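ok so i was messing around last nite and threw this chain in just to see what happens. nothing serious, just curious
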Amino acid sequence: MTLITRKTDYATRVLLHLALLSPGGQATTQDIAHRQLIPERLIRHIISQLAKARLLSTKRGKGGGVQLARPAAEISLLDVVEAMQGPLSLNLCVDEPDSCALAAECPMHEAWARTQEELANWLRQETLDKLTQRSETLAALQRAAD
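result:
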């Protein structure tokens, strides 16, 4: 079972690619697709969803491209997951407790709710600026190893 879809993974790669550019930097969809190994048949759909969620902005025509819609420190992994997959939900009983006749006496309800909240908090704290720092560190370590 996969909780994070391939499209969400690709969306994270798109945003991380843009976050690694200089502030205000932009890239073409073709360049991102090529560098991040994202199928071109999917990249336009992914970029459309990210733009709709106001995580990136697009500019058409000559000199156009895509760029982050706000600073990397203000975009979290939770933002990306929700933009691509909708609200985080581990179990229907967490989102709609009335849907389960056993909710009031079920010990799992609290466990699912707590787990979902902890996951949401962790994803909220993981921002693109933190990921870019790790990316730069990993790149430096790779260069040193070569």
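not much to say yet. Residues 6-145 form a domain with the Arc Repressor Mutant, subunit A fold (CATH 1.10.10.10).
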